[in-house]
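Review form for a predicted model. The reviewer records the input and the model, then writes brief findings.
Reviewer: anonymous (R2)
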Amino acid sequence: MSKENSTPTEKLFGSKTRAKLLGLFFGSPTKSFYIREMTRVIDEQINSVRRELSNLESIGIIKNESFDNKVYYSANAKHPYYRPMIEIFSKKIDSNRDHDIKANTWDEYTRPVRNYLQGLIVTNRLPGQDGLDLLIIGNDRTKKLTRWAEVVEKKQGKTINYAIMTPEDFTYRKSVKDRFVEDVLEMEIIEIYDPEKIIKGK
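Model under review:
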């Protein structure tokens, strides 16, 4: 790409891949990503992603941690430019990338089990953090939801902590402020599928 065709952000940071990675990290500063996930989301080659990750890590603006045989990268909250970078990237990412992922990825994921799935909570559980990635609400007598969760796990490329509850069980436990359900609802939630208003209430 020539400099004349570069976006202002690319010109500012000197590299299309670097600008996209910074947008990914500081548009969602509480999230962590592994390399192949990054290449898919920002649509760049893995070699250029690895190169720019090394550059960004060398100046301390991102950090990494290993979990379940994968290396996850995230924004470094201790870096002096952490807040300014969020100011630069948050609005752009919130309106584009996060919306696209929510609208497309989970819409695609849930389509095969819409007849069995009556509710879904997707959380942003960080590597090593307690809690669930998915709380699945529906009747699992035929184990279709269990098999679906295993498929999602393969698509995500990482181990997923999930629980399956019937709508009746979830509604009751929510009404009595069950600690397990309350803990899930207090986590950072990135997606809710709630066609029958079981989660949010009618």
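Findings: Residues 3-95 form a domain with the Arc Repressor Mutant, subunit A fold (CATH 1.10.10.10).
Further findings: The longest strand covers residues 117-123.
Recommendation: see findings above.
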